[in-house]
Amino acid sequence: MVRATIFMAMTLTRRVGVLISGTVQGVGFRPHVYRLALSLELAGFVRNDKQGVAVEVEGEPGAVQAFVTRVASEAPPIARIEHLTVQDLPLRGVAEHGFTIEASSDVGAMRASITPDLATCSACVREIFDPRDRRFRYPFTNCTSCGPRFTIVRGTPYDRANTTMAAFVMCAACQAEYDDPLNRRFHAQPNACPQCGPTIELVDRTRHPVSLEAARDAMAAAARALANGAIVAVKGLGGFHLACRADDETAVRALRDRKHRADKPFALMARDLEQVAALVALDPEERALLSSPEHPIVLARRRSAGRVADAVAPGHRDLGVMLPYTPVHHLLLADVGAPLVMTSGNVSDEPIAFENDDALRRLGGLADLFLLHNRPIATRVDDSVMRLVRVGGRRQPLMLRRSRGYVPVSLPVNPGPPLLATGAELKNTFAVAKDGRAWVSHHIGDLENLETLNSFEAGIEHFRMLFEVTPERVTHDLHPGYFSTRYALERTAFACPPRGVQHHHAHLAACLAEYGESGPAVGAIYDGTGYGTDGTIWGGEILVGAAGRFERAAHLWPVRLPGGAAAIWQPWRMACAWLLEASGTAADPPAIPPALMPYVEPRRWRAVAALARSGEHAPVATSMGRLFDAVAALCGIRHQVNYEGQAAIELELAADPDAREPYPFPLQRRDAVTLLDARPLVAAIARDALAGCPVAAIAGRFHETVATTTVQVVRDVAERHGMKTVVLSGGVFQNVLLLERTSAGLQSLGYRVLVPQDLPVNDGGIAYGQIAVAVSMDR
Ligand SMILES: [Zn+2]
Ligand SMILES: [Zn+2]
To answer: In 3-state terms, what secondary structure has residue 258?
Structure first.
């Protein structure tokens, strides 16, 4: 190095090596480097390797310095630079001519990123709507800034041969674009055109073309069928959607019936922001989120004037809306001229279909027509779902489902041995980690049917291969009955014994890790179900801890869940258990609240009360989610649910935000633990319901009560432990009213409030938390 420096000073020339890691492959980084080097008249080369992008440049020292600055500051918009190192090198001088792009090198640790799938960029959209362009109306148009990535990757390095595009041989025109460093399709691995790329077809259930028009122009025929009220299964980026006109009541109802989906809202897709804005009220942050390269589904407040069938989201204040993110969607939305329902191509809770044959088989009874294409999907990926919430003075994203567009972006963890985390049971994700990075999987789903279990197991193998992680330890939930736990314990090929991580501790650690912290902090972790260290079900927890340890400082008053899992689907059972608890040790079972009388036979009510009293088939739980269920049932909002969290969601919808007089919800110290005694709260609500108080007022006051009591107990615990940071997480905090009230209350007392934003507050964040905990315990 010293010799090089002296030589450099003599010649007024400098050579540096620049290593750039992060999301820098498949995003147009090398053409950016190439153009920058040419414009600065530098010699050298750029190449992808497993670390990321490696560059050497040589030339006038001022130009070299400008290169080092601008290579980062002018990087392509979708690139994410994590590390950039610069090193002086010996000169090569006349031995080198100009600047070149070299072939990939395969050496080094696997650090380069496989990028997420990206929504079609504006340049590609212009082409597909330009009649003079050779890609006019071509449904598989993409470039280096957009298109499929993660969903088509089969192996590494990220090259066409390792994707599901391998079978398509580029025509001369596409190859020329691919080879030209100044073209925006330079090394765009899925590059294709009508001459050489994938094709699309519209068929019926028996896989026959439906008409001559369909054989000639499948896109136009599909759009016409949709416009006329058909339900069409559309193969997209990560799987199939079921589509129909959003303003066609008959079509939407038919879709609900066929999908066996009674109430859960459907997502919509609209042509552009203007069409979205006719459906929902949008602020600038929501517009930005909708049109970000990730193009998630965004939940926003629906407009009363928006022309949407009632069956899209019965009784809901919000609609889930997204913009078209592939050329297929752009063409359909433009041709139909109206927003479409775009819901997962599945029946009930099965995973979405993503293979043509499977879709025809599984969705045969659901869709009238199938819009199929012959570019295979390597990994099934759902749409991501987000909303914006106010935490203190700041609006931040609340991730409800993290999948397409966000996976497989890595998240930071403390360095440690290579790990696998198998996550929780519902809304499962898994994660692998090594060298200070964790890759959390796409949304796998609820591990309760064979199809989902297969996709869990295949997903783990895929991630291990893609990121070259050979785990030395597996970490899992404490719940012995979870499939993810059994999967972890049955696999013994790890160097270290498996490690169980308490569910709510994982929630706390995940949030801290996301913010690059390891605690200590107070965590208010509220959800439906998580296995406790004492073998009971937890879910209304105030924890004090850090990534490596925690203690349970406070929790909700325990009650029985009469009938176990049945209590989750039948909130009236929780109303019964809570009323029994609130009435103390009275010999008689509580009377059936009037709101439940039409639905619950006295005989069943008495039987459930007997279960709660005896404890038979009635595990003890401190679940905040079940308290919300009980209150929803007492108010007559929901006696039974048909999707997870439905009662709590409808309770929030019912709440009058101006009804703020709290109910009694006292705190009781018992040894070192504080109990949030909800018995007087439940008794007061039952009295109000009996007296005919408006449900909106009861629901509003209930939310206020939970928020204020949470603030109070967190403050007590924080003062006792001298802490200023509070984490709010767990699925119950998907409730915006509760989240915003609680965080505002804590902030007004001077606490720093952290709420997860890169990962869901629900169990989709558990695997990452398991990694964060295990890494800390190993240090
Ligand atoms: Zn593009
Ligand atoms: Zn071509």
So the answer is: helix
